[in-house]
User: What shape does this take?
Amino acid sequence: MSKHGYESGRLNLPFVGHATFGKNPPCVDWEKIDADIAIIGAPFDFGTQYRPGARFGPRSIREASTLFSFGHAGAYDHEDDAVYLTGDVRIVDMGDADIVHTDTETSHANIENAVRKALEGGALPVVLGGDHSVNIPCVRAFDKQEPIHIVQIDAHLDFVDERHGVRHGHGNPMRRAAEKDYVTGLSQIGIRNVSSTAKEGYDDARKMGSDIMSVRQFRKLGVEKVLQRIPDKTRFYVTIDIDGFDPSIAPGTGTPSHGGFLYYEVLELLQGLSKRGDVVGIDLVEVAPDYDHTGSTAFLAAQLLLNFLGFIFHERQK
Assistant: This one.
C-alpha cells in the first residue's frame, strides 16, 4: 500500500512510456491481428503540391494521443452519460507502412497492403497520413469488401483526373475513389474557397455521384439536415483532411484554407454518422506538425479520432 492510498502499478502519465496511438499495444506481426481497431501510419507526403511535412503526421498524432491515455480504459462523457472506448474495445497500433522515397507506387502499395491486413484480421483500419494521396491505396484495399459510401471532410474537392501525368497525387483521391464500382457515392463536406479542382472537376464529381457542400452551406442547414443528405443504413468510409478545419485551430497543414470548420461541428457530424450506418474505414490526413509549434493540430487530430472511435463502438455495442 502506498502512503497515498491503495493504488498499485504504474501511474503511466502521458509523457512516459511508448508513444503508440492512445498508448495501445503495438502489433508487429500483421498476420496475427487480434483487435477491433488497427492503427496504421502512412507517413507519405510526395503527393503534395505545396508545403511538405505530412510525413511527420503519424508520429505527431501518436504522441498527441498519449495526452488522452492515463493508463485507464474508457472515457466518461457527462453530456451523453456514456462511457466510450471501454476496456473491451481492443486497439492495436500496427506501426507504419514502409515508404520508399520518391516511389509513389511502391509506397502506396505498401499502404494498401497494411490496410488489407487490418481488414483480413477483422479490425477497423484507421490510417494516419501523410498527404491525402494515401487515401488512394486505402480505398483500393476495400475492393473485396461490401460497397462503401465515402464521407469526405475537407477544404478541397480533390477530384482532379490527371495533371501533367499525375493521377495519384493529393489532388486526385476522390476522383480515383469515384471510379471504383464498389464506391456507391461521395458526400464531400467543407469544400470552399480557391481550390485545387477546376469547374470541370466539380461537374464530373456531381455526374459521378457526389454531393458537394461548403462550410457555409453546412452551417445554414445544420448537422441533422446534413446527415439526412447522407445515405443511411450503409457502410461508410470516412476520410478527414485536417484542412477541413479552420487554420485558426489547425494551422499545422500544408494547404490551409480559412473559413473552415470548428471542432464540435465535425464531431457532431461524426457522432451522427456513427448512428446512421457502419463506419468501416477511416483515414485522417495532411497533419504537418512543423507548421504548428503549439502542437494543437496534432492534439485536435488525436482527440477527434478517439472520440469518433468511441462513438462507433458505442453504437456497435448497442
In short: Residues 19 and 63 are 5 Å apart (CA to CA). The chain has a mean pLDDT of 95. The first strand starts at residue 37 and ends at 42.
